[in-house]
Design goal:
Layout lengths: L4 E8 L3 H14 L6 H22 L7 E9 L2 E8 L7 H4 L16 H8 L2 E6 L5 E8 L9
Antiparallel strand pairs: 1-2, 2-3, 3-5, 4-5
Helix pairs in contact: 1-2, 2-4
């Protein structure tokens, strides 16, 4: 019988926690026996999602937390990165390549495109004033039929 495993991590939305969360999710993913390339993909996508929370999530609202929920099983890693911040008024526009609300900070507007490139599925749930949840999935190649 295949088992699944879960973890939840909540950290303050501050810059030093980006590397911590990236490493924690990568360590959690190791149970699926991913390749080095797959681990790098996961770390890159998580880094982008967490950075978005830090840079955009609580702007004008003070400070807050980032919650990361992961589940692993059946050769798949599911990751949800969320904040309870200001939200995204137009998710479709925010997902457009090169769109940024912070050009003065030399932001590239590639965050969602990068997440989508490195993960197998990406979903963004948000609205102005309601925070944001970025849900990602990574299928670990060749592992779906492996007994956990």
């Amino acid at each position: 019988m295949k088992e699944s495993n879960e973890m939840t991590l909540t950290v303050p939305a501050i810059g030093v926690n980006e590397a911590f969360v990236r490493g924690a999710v990568a360590a959690f993913a190791v149970q699926l026996d991913p390749t080095v390339e797959e681990i790098n993909d996961i770390k890159t996508a998580v880094s982008e999602a967490v950075t978005n929370c830090i840079v955009h999530g609580y702007e004008g609202k003070g400070s807050g937390d980032i919650t990361v929920k992961c589940s692993a099983g059946g050769g798949r890693l599911h990751i949800a990165v969320s904040d309870a911040g200001v939200g995204i008024p137009d998710v479709a526009r925010a997902r457009e390549m090169f769109y940024t609300t912070k050009p003065e900070q030399e932001r590239s507007g590639m965050g969602f495109a990068i997440m989508e490139t490195f993960m197998d599925a990406l979903e963004v749930e948000s609205a102005a004033g309601s925070g944001t949840i970025v849900k990602m999935e990574k299928r670990i190649k060749g592992k779906a039929d492996k007994a956990d």
